[in-house]
Design a protein that fits this description.
alpha+beta, Immunoglobulin-like, 4-stranded antiparallel beta sheet, 2 helices, 44% strand, elongated
Length: 144
């Protein structure tokens, strides 16, 4: 009898765990971008660099980075999170640098810093990107 009770409890626990996992995984993560593209593009007057939020694609937040490197000098691009950890770092000598970077939507990052720095220190530009993610849960109860 004791063995039967343990099996029943184990089955109920397993079923509850599966239900909790399904509910957790079915939660939606919606990111809303402003339709006004000027607010999604960040640059300064007379700046050679531009950061633009491109939207969401396959559970990734997309950011495009453009840098006009007229002198074709080496420069570094670093993407840093709010805790100061470098998520991505690259060096390039491209004259017209243009790349798109993807950040998984489900990360807990709320702020990114894009830092572009030339090797001769004649150009340095930092861009802060604040990420606000909202969760929408829809529940409908119907009477039969």
């Amino acid at each position: 009898m004791k063995n039967q009770t343990l099996n029943t409890v184990a089955k109920k626990f397993f079923a509850g765990s599966i239900l909790a996992a399904v509910l957790f995984l079915s939660a939606q993560n919606n990111v809303y971008a402003n339709d006004n593209t000027k607010k999604n593009v960040v640059s300064e007057n007379n700046s050679n660099a531009t950061i633009k939020y491109e939207g969401v694609n396959n559970n990734y937040l997309l950011f495009s980075v453009k840098y006009n490197n007229a002198k074709s000098e080496f420069f570094t691009l670093s993407i840093i999170d709010e805790s100061g950890e470098t998520l991505y770092n690259t060096a390039s000598k491209e004259k017209e640098f243009s790349h798109t970077y993807a950040l998984p939507k489900d990360t807990d990052v709320s702020k990114l810093t894009f830092d572009i720095r030339s090797s001769k220190a004649d150009f340095h530009q930092s861009f802060d990107v604040n990420i606000n993610t909202s969760y929408v849960e829809n529940v409908v109860v119907n009477k039969k």
